[in-house]
């Protein structure tokens, strides 16, 4: 089953679904619409690959606009906030156990859910 088929299986935004495990990292797919929460990951980089739609990664000093097929890695310790005006489908890769909201916590913190 490919990621697009798996993405079709859920409609919630900011609800990460783990697609497997790769060297103690979790490839996750997520649907994004609206603005997430400003946060950082003190101990890990944050990998974003846009599968569909457009994603903006807001950084303190600039915005990174991504189209399908483009990727960006937020370096560890850098505050960021993903957002999408319309639905975007994104692949993330993070170490197992990394909370999606990093240091921010809050109601958008998602547990690790396998597909």
Explained architecture:
The protein has 115 residues and is mostly beta strands. The chain has a single domain, classed as Jelly Rolls. Helices cover 4% and strands 41% of the residues. The chain is built from 1 helix and 7 strands. The chain has one helix at residues 3-7, and strands at residues 17-18, 25-35, 46-52, 55-58, 63-66, 71-74, 81-95. Strands 1, 2, 3, 4, 5, 6 and 7 form a 7-stranded antiparallel β-sheet that branches. Strand 4 (55-58) and strand 5 form a beta hairpin. The protein is globular, with a radius of gyration of 13 Å. The mean pLDDT is 85.
Short recap of the structure:
The chain is built from 1 helix and 7 strands; from the N terminus they run αβββββββ. The protein has 115 residues and is mainly beta. The chain has one domain (3-95): Jelly Rolls (Sandwich).
**Percent in strands:** 35-45%
The tally of strands reads 7
CATH architecture: Sandwich
Report the mean per-residue pLDDT as an integer.
Answer: 85
Q: What structural category do the secondary elements indicate?
A: mainly beta
SSE series: HEEEEEEE
Taken from the alpha-carbon principal axes, the silhouette is: globular
Q: Helix content range of the residues, please?
A: under 10%
The CATH class is identified as: Mainly Beta
Quote the CATH topology.
Jelly Rolls
- Helix count, DSSP H or I runs of 4 or more residues: 1
Q: What is the H level of CATH, i.e. the homologous superfamily?
A: Jelly Rolls
Termini separation comes to 11 Å
Give the low-confidence spans.
none
Largest β sheet strand count, sense and barrel closure: 7 strands, antiparallel
Gyration radius (Cα, Å) is 13 Å
Query: Structurally, how many domains make up the residues?
Result: 1
């Amino acid at each position: 089953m490919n990621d697009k088929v798996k993405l079709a299986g859920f409609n919630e935004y900011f609800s990460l679904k783990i697609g497997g495990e790769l060297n103690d990292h979790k490839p996750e797919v997520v649907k994004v619409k609206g603005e997430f929460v400003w946060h950082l990951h003190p101990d890990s980089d944050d990998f974003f690959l846009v599968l569909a739609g457009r994603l903006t990664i807001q950084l303190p000093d600039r915005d990174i606009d991504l189209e399908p097929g483009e990727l960006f890695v937020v370096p560890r310790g850098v505050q960021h906030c993903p957002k999408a005006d319309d639905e975007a489908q994104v692949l993330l890769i993070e170490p197992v156990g990394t909370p999606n909201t990093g240091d921010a916590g809050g109601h958008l913190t998602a547990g690790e859910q396998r597909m």
